[in-house]
Structure formats: C-alpha cells, structure tokens
TrEMBL record, chain A:
Protein name per UniProt: A-type ATP synthase subunit D
Residues spanning the signal sequence: none
Entry membrane topology: Peripheral membrane protein
Top-level taxon of the source organism: Archaea
A GO-annotated cellular component: plasma membrane
Organism of this sequence: Halolamina pelagica
Role according to the record: Component of the A-type ATP synthase that produces ATP from ADP in the presence of a proton gradient across the membrane.
Taxon lineage: Archaea, Methanobacteriati, Methanobacteriota, Stenosarchaea group, Halobacteria
Region (Disordered): 203-232
MF-aspect GO terms: ATP binding; proton-transporting ATP synthase activity, rotational mechanism; proton-transporting ATPase activity, rotational mechanism
Subunit structure, interactors included: Has multiple subunits with at least A(3), B(3), C, D, E, F, H, I and proteolipid K(x).
TrEMBL record, chain B:
A Pfam family per the record: ATP-synt_F
One GO CC term, this protein: plasma membrane
Keyword Lipid metabolism: no
Membrane topology per record: Peripheral membrane protein
Assembly notes: Has multiple subunits with at least A(3), B(3), C, D, E, F, H, I and proteolipid K(x).
Keywords for the protein's UniProt record, in alphabetical order: ATP synthesis, Cell membrane, Hydrogen ion transport, Ion transport, Membrane, Transport
Source organism of the structure: Halolamina pelagica
The protein's name in its UniProt record: A-type ATP synthase subunit F
Family of the protein in this entry: Belongs to the V-ATPase F subunit family.
UniProt keyword annotation of Transport present: yes
GO biological process per UniProt: proton motive force-driven plasma membrane ATP synthesis
Gene that specifies this protein: atpF
NCBIfam families xref list: PRK02228.1 (NF002577)
Length: 232, 108
C-alpha cells in the first residue's frame, strides 16, 4: 500500500529499480509463456494422433478378445493370460523442453515371439495369439500416449504457473509499485513546493527586516543630521 | 529403474492386458467398483514399481473426487485412459484452465 512507504528519494530510487526489474521479468515470463504454448501446440497435434491410434488399437484388441472368448471360452483365455512369463518393462529418461523436464519412456519386452509367451504352442489357438498380438500393439501405443500426455501435463502445469506469475506481476505487483512511485513523487513535489514557499517566506521576511533596519538607520541618520546644525 | 504397467478395471478389461504380459493388475468387478475401485487406485498409485496406470475412462466416475483428481494429475505414475476419446483423463479440463481455450473442441 502506498501509505506504508516513506516518501524519501532513496525509497523512490529503490522502487524505480524494482519497477524496471519487474517489467523486465514480466516481458521474459510473457515470452516464456508464449514459447511454452507454441511447444505445447506441437505436442498437442502429436498427442491427438497418438490418442486416435490408442483408441483404434483398443477397439481392435477388444474385438479380438471378444472373438477369442466366444470361440475358445473364457477359461482358456484366462488360463493363457495367467501363464505369461515375460512382462513388459518401461524405463524413464528425461529431456528438457524450455526448462520443463519431460519423460522419455522406453519399453522393453512388450512384443514377444510365440514360443516365449509361456502358454505353449499346443495348448492355445491362433485367436488367442492374435489377441495377445493386438494387446501388445495396444501397450506400445499406450506407452507412447503416456509419454506424450505426461509431457503435456507437465507443460500445462508450467504454463499455468508462468501465467499466474505474469498476471501477478501485471495486475498486482507492478500497479502497486507504480502507485507507490506516484505517491512518493507527489509527496516529494509537495515537500519541494513547501520548501520553496518557506524559502520565499524567509527571504521576504529577511528583506522586510533589512528594509526595516535600513529605514531605522535612515531615520537615525536623518535624526542625526537634523540634530547637529541646531547644536552648532 | 525399470517400472511396469498396471491395469485396473473389470476382469474383462484386464484379461487382454494380461495376455500381453501385464502382471500388475487389480480386478474389480462392475458391481464392486463403487466400493473397491478407490482403494485399488490408491494402492496402485503408491506402488513405486508402477510407471503407467491403464484404466477405462468410464471407471473414473466410480472414484471419489480426491482420488480422481490425484490420479488424473499424477505424473508418476501417469494415467492413460481408454475408451474416452481425446482429452480424456482430465487433460481437456487442464488445457482449458491453462490455455483458456478448449483446444480439443473439434475432437468431439
């Protein structure tokens, strides 16, 4: 609040420095926000493509699973599912997009050859194999979607934070600082005007006193000149 | 550190993933979802070995508000929902909030 600041030149200079810094920070943050939004738009296009791929793969996988269930029976499908030995694994590394650390997910053991699935070649049917294949494809798409959607979530968080900072500078900090600057400038001008007025008053008073002194001196001199011829 | 994929949902939903080798799964039958799904999601989220959680988009409606928000905004593990189209899993709302526009509007 403007009332809390002491109207001194030192404070005015400090506030001017803070305004300059805040304006520079505001511009930089605005650029960062715009840059992040542009990067986000690129990822969004990619994410939408991956998302449609995931949905398509899910539909295919579900159809194949329904078919396998209908033809082989639920027990056979569940039995094959329970026999799996190799499990898909993911390892996460990170990369930096404009200061936002986003994950890069790498998968292993997602696609397995028939003989490594664990349920045996004799005991299962081609439909179960096809279903397993379809679900392996789906897992591949899910891993891609997870990578892109996590990057999007992280970027959205950063965009929100940056936006909040820009807004705080633009609508809270800078207006308050400018209000304080205006208040101090007005107060200093007022003090200056009072000082000038006081100096003028003092000067006028001094001149008045000098005039009075001169008048007295003149009167005294006049008195002395008029008094001296009479004495002669 | 290598992590795994976890699947949460009805047995019909998880069976396919198990055929692809996913071993971390929570079978919650449809009639028990209202009671058990919240706990299943919460316990999976605390598992450090899980990097990705896969759920059906419709199942998110069974979750309590807090758990749903936690799982939707979680980055590690990250949630991937199926069957909800683009912008599912809270991403659409987050985009609207951060950017100010519904960028997934034309995807409906």
């Amino acid at each position: 609040m403007a009332k809390d600041v002491k109207p001194t030149r030192k404070n005015l200079m400090a506030i001017e420095d803070r305004i300059e810094l805040s304006e520079r920070g505001h511009d930089t943050l605005e650029q960062k926000r715009d840059g992040l939004i542009m990067e986000f738009m690129d990822i969004l296009d990619q994410a939408q493509d991956i998302r449609s791929e995931v949905e398509a793969d899910y539909q295919t996988a579900q159809q194949k699973l329904d078919m396998a269930r209908a033809m082989e029976g639920d027990v056979a499908v569940r039995g094959a599912a329970a026999a799996l030995k190799e499990h898909p694994e993911i390892t996460t590394q990170s990369k930096n997009i404009m200061g936002v650390v986003v994950p890069q997910i790498e998968a292993s053991k997602v696609r397995k050859p028939l003989d490594e699935r664990g349920y045996g070649l004799v005991g299962s049917s081609a439909r179960i194999d096809e279903t397993a294949d379809a679900y392996e494809d789906l897992i591949d798409s899910i891993i891609l979607a997870a990578e892109v959607e996590t990057a999007m979530k992280k970027m959205l968080e950063e965009i929100e934070t940056t936006k909040r900072r820009v807004n705080a500078l633009e609508f809270k900090l800078l207006p308050e600082l400018k209000q304080n600057q205006e208040y101090i400038e007005q107060k200093l001008e007022e003090q200056e005007r009072e000082e000038i007025f006081r100096l003028k008053k003092i000067k006028a008073k001094k001149e008045e006193e000098e005039d009075e002194e001169q008048e007295i001196e003149a009167d005294e001199r006049e008195g002395a000149t008029t008094a001296s011829p009479k004495a002669d | 550190m290598s992590q795994e994929i976890a699947v949460i949902g009805s047995p019909e939903f998880t069976t396919g993933f198990r055929l692809a080798g996913v071993r971390k799964f929570e079978d919650v039958p449809d009639e028990e979802k209202a009671d058990r799904l919240d706990d299943a999601v919460a316990s999976t989220m605390t598992d450090d070995d899980v990097g990705i959680i896969v759920m059906h988009d419709d199942d998110l409606d069974y979750l309590s508000r807090g758990t749903r928000e936690d799982v939707e905004t979680s980055v590690e593990p990250t949630l991937v929902t199926l069957g909800g189209g683009a912008g599912s899993g809270g991403l659409r709302d987050q985009i609207k909030r951060a950017i100010g526009i519904d960028l997934m509007d034309d995807e409906d």
